[in-house]
Design a protein that fits this description.
alpha+beta; 3-stranded antiparallel sheet
Length: about 50
């Protein structure tokens, strides 16, 4: 899931909640929404390999 931060950047979080912290894992921060979407596609690609 992608969320916009107060700084104007975009961060990708995991969909599942981490059992240790009870929060979503931070999977990267990006300057643009397009860059975040591209990286999310890359994550999905490698998850299913």
């Amino acid at each position: 899931m992608i969320r916009k931060l107060k700084s104007g950047k975009y961060r990708i979080y995991s969909r599942k909640i981490d059992a240790k912290t009870n929060k979503h894992k931070n999977l990267g921060t990006f300057d643009s929404l397009d860059a975040a979407k591209q990286h999310e596609r890359e994550i999905q690609y490698f998850k299913h390999r």
